[in-house]
Write a structure and sequence with these properties.
Blueprint (H helix, E strand, L loop, with lengths): L10 E4 L10 E7 L3 H8 E2 L10 E8 L6 E10 L10 E7 L3 H12 L3 E2 L4 H8 L5 H11 L4 H11 L4 H23 L9 H19 L2 H9 L1 E7 L5 H9 L17 E7 L2 E7 L9 H16 L2 E7 L6 H10 L4 E6 L6 H5 L10 E3 L8 H13 L14 H22 L4 H19 L5 H8 L7
Parallel strand pairs: 1-7, 8-10, 8-11, 11-12, 12-13
Antiparallel strand pairs: 1-2, 2-6, 3-4, 4-5, 5-6, 9-10
Length: 463
């Protein structure tokens, strides 16, 4: 049995980020049968404070052997089953930083707890029926959310709004399965199956599965964000564009070509979508070994990007160098950014020649912070048009859930083939059981140890 699945004993972990000289509070969380005993061993509450569930006590954490004072703290008590894990849970709310929480954690480990595995608190919540598997995954999504919309999407899943339609579909499949198996076992005592009703039900379930599958790309974009690479010849204003867009001086800007030697990154949020912007080195042929490495990294960044912003200099127009770069990135989702329009006449800008296959053009004057709003609007238009991925916060499945839905859909397609070929009812039940099993994988009603390993190993320790 894997370490993630071994959920016996009492576990402890630091449940907050540990950063030197930052954070006013640090929390050590303990869950399991010895949680209360450990709290009573380490914590002394002066006066007549009542040790009762869902109360906060004030007091001191001491080493039980030496009575050395470790921290002045608060203690939160949560008796089973009214806790996150449905076990006894205590939390030591210590002073922030490094030393206090680490010393308290060490005392917990010395007095009957073991260090929690990654995601083990949430795994226990799942195994004890506190959360289903979609809710557990939403916990991880909420912790890792990079935009308000991504957080909202995670909250929708945490409230069970994804699990509910999955359970309804699984329930309908189980009802159909029961009807068929009843006819197999008690054919003479029951009226014959209404094949039209059965087929209609199957088609309805398949249609609902297809609707859920259509949300995968929407959710993936909000969860992971959009990677945008700014590429172009040296000195066309790529670094100025990054600085104006991020409202910072992330990239060094000079009049000398080749200033940027490596990929410079900035994290932004555009229309609720996390955007990772990569300012790349100017792409050109060079004998400078360091610059050559930067150019190669620029090409790799462009090939890995969800969207390429091919940036050109309005004063130079479309050059042979621009054409060469375009040939390397034209198979990617692409937008043409015509920079430095403040240095040319409007007529000169509109008469620029560029490949007619480029249909998204945004003029900017990055050095003067002009055109950034238009750039963001154009990016959102590409997203909404589905050229990259669509964004919606109603409901969205992740990759694991999508794989299970695809298996369910394949089983239902096979079932329809089985019906069309007029095979015996026993064959119908095989396909239906496959669909029921696949749908159960999503919520955790049908789950394997390897699936749990894969899901919870991605969690942080303490959650």
């Amino acid at each position: 049995m894997s370490e993630v699945f071994a959920t016996t004993g009492t576990i402890a972990a630091i449940a907050t980020a540990v950063v030197p000289q930052q954070g006013s509070v640090g929390i050590v969380r303990v869950s399991g049968e010895r949680a209360m005993a450990i709290a009573q061993t380490l914590f002394s509450a002066p006066g007549r404070q009542v040790w009762d569930s869902h109360r906060v006590l004030y007091g001191y954490i001491r080493c039980p052997q030496t009575r050395r004072l470790v921290d002045e703290a608060l203690l939160l008590l949560m008796r089973a089953p009214r806790s996150y894990t449905r076990e006894d849970v205590v939390e030591f709310h210590c002073h922030g930083g490094i030393m206090a929480v680490q010393q308290v954690l060490q005392l917990c480990l010395e007095n009957g707890a073991r260090l929690a595995q990654a995601g083990e608190f949430t795994l226990r919540a799942f195994l004890n029926g506190r959360l289903d598997l979609t809710q557990a995954e939403s916990v991880a999504d909420l912790v890792g959310a990079r935009s308000p919309q991504a957080a909202q999407l995670a909250l929708v899943g945490l409230q069970g709004k994804l699990a509910d339609p999955i359970r309804r579909l699984r329930g309908r499949c189980l009802d159909i399965l029961a009807e068929i198996e009843a006819r197999i076992d008690f054919e003479e005592d029951l009226p014959p199956l209404d094949f039209k009703v059965i087929i209609s039900e199957i088609e309805h379930v398949a249609a609902e599965i297809s609707k859920l599958l259509a949300t995968k790309d929407r959710g993936e974009l909000l969860r992971t964000g959009l990677k945008v690479a700014i590429v172009g010849r040296p000195n066309v204003g790529k670094s100025s564009l990054l600085n104006a867009w991020s409202q910072s001086d992330r990239a060094i800007v000079t009049d000398l070509p080749g200033t940027t030697r490596d990929v410079v990154e900035s994290q932004l949020v555009v229309g609720g979508i996390p955007v990772q912007v990569l300012d790349t080195a100017g792409i050109r042929e060079t004998t400078d070994q360091v610059e050559k490495i930067g150019v190669e990294r620029s090409r790799r960044a462009a090939n890995a990007a969800d969207l390429v912003l091919l940036t050109i200099d309005a004063t130079a127009g479309w050059t042979a160098g621009d054409q060469e770069i375009y040939a390397q990135v034209q198979d990617r989702p692409l937008m043409l950014v015509i920079n430095k329009i403040d240095l040319v006449q409007a007529l000169d800008f509109t008469s620029l020649e560029y490949p007619q296959t480029i249909n998204q053009i945004v003029p900017t004057a990055a050095a003067k912070n002009q055109g950034i709003d238009a750039l963001e609007t154009a990016i959102l238009e590409i997203v909404q048009a589905g050229k990259i991925q669509a964004a919606d916060v109603d409901l969205a499945i992740n990759q694991r859930q999508a794989a299970a839905l695809v298996k369910a859909n394949i089983a239902l397609i096979q079932l329809q083939t089985t019906i069309d070929e007029q095979l015996p009812l026993d064959f119908w039940t095989i396909d239906l059981r496959d669909a029921v099993h696949a749908l159960g994988e999503i919520t955790g009603e049908e789950v394997t140890e390897s699936v749990l390993d894969r899901i919870f190993s991605k969690f942080c320790i303490g959650k």
